[in-house]
Design brief:
The chain folds into two domains: 59 residues, no CATH class; 172 residues, no CATH class. The protein contains ten helices and no strands. It is flat and about 70 Å long.
């Protein structure tokens, strides 16, 4: 299903509730009544084309549709990706932690095994934090610099050296470890922990982890399939022009 500007915003959420944090990050909050997407974006001063591309990319992983985002400025993509980081650290991570703590508190036996889950998640949280810091302090500023140099046709020697030494592809493999660790944590909960008397708390942890995985995969896909190729092409063209001088 493709979501277009004439669909009511509420209907889009009813179609897939996982869009809720996505539309929040794009600048839309609940309380929009019966208005369609175009009207809500207009009132909230949200770029309609960018909004539609992001939510459709989230719902449908078709690369050809995702690449429509190339018509949008790099700054908008970076702002959205930063907002996802904030959501992970301020909302998703605390939610998972609270559910893991509730899980541990409801099991009097074999608590050590459940504590392993908590410790595993603590390590994952540290890696995710370091990953977001790397992107926000190094990768995203570099991306914006390349984009601005490409737009202005002005390339400084400092940026030229950075492109040669640390091109965007050198950062492109960062997500794989983060994603695999989250998958491992889900498998521990699914396959290896003792059977509980009541499965509700464990299911709650797994539900939160699956939601996080879905969101992080979408974040990674936008970076790896859209942002990285766009910046890589800009790097090539900037290097070519520099060599011709």
């Amino acid at each position: 299903m493709y979501i277009d500007k004439d669909m009511k915003m509420a209907d889009a959420i009813h179609y897939n509730y996982l869009l809720l944090p996505v539309i929040n990050r794009l600048g839309v909050q609940l309380g929009f009544g019966d208005k369609n997407i175009e009207k809500v974006c207009q009132e909230e001063e949200v770029d309609l084309d960018f909004f539609l591309v992001i939510i459709n990319a989230f719902l449908d992983h078709d690369l050809n549709k995702t690449l429509k985002i190339q018509s949008v400025s790099i700054e908008k993509i970076v702002d959205y990706l930063k907002a996802t980081h904030q959501f992970y650290l301020e909302q998703m991570i605390p939610e998972v932690e609270n559910r893991i703590n509730a899980l541990i508190q409801n099991f009097d036996i074999n608590q050590n095994q459940f504590l392993l889950v908590k410790n595993f998640f603590e390590e994952y949280k540290k890696e995710l934090y370091l990953h977001t810091q790397l992107e926000e302090k190094t990768v995203y500023p570099y991306v914006v610099d390349v984009y601005q140099a490409y737009q202005s046709h002005q390339l400084s020697q400092e940026l030229l050296d950075r492109i040669k030494d640390y091109p965007i592809n050198s950062y492109a493999q960062e997500h794989s470890d983060i994603e695999s660790k989250l998958f491992d944590l889900k498998n521990i909960l699914i396959k290896y922990l003792p059977q509980p008397k009541h499965s509700y708390q464990r299911n709650q942890v797994l539900t939160a982890l699956f939601k996080m995985e879905n969101d992080i995969n979408d974040h990674s896909r936008i970076e790896n399939m859209v942002l990285v190729p766009m910046i890589s092409e800009m790097e090539k063209q900037l290097l070519t022009k520099s060599a011709q001088k």
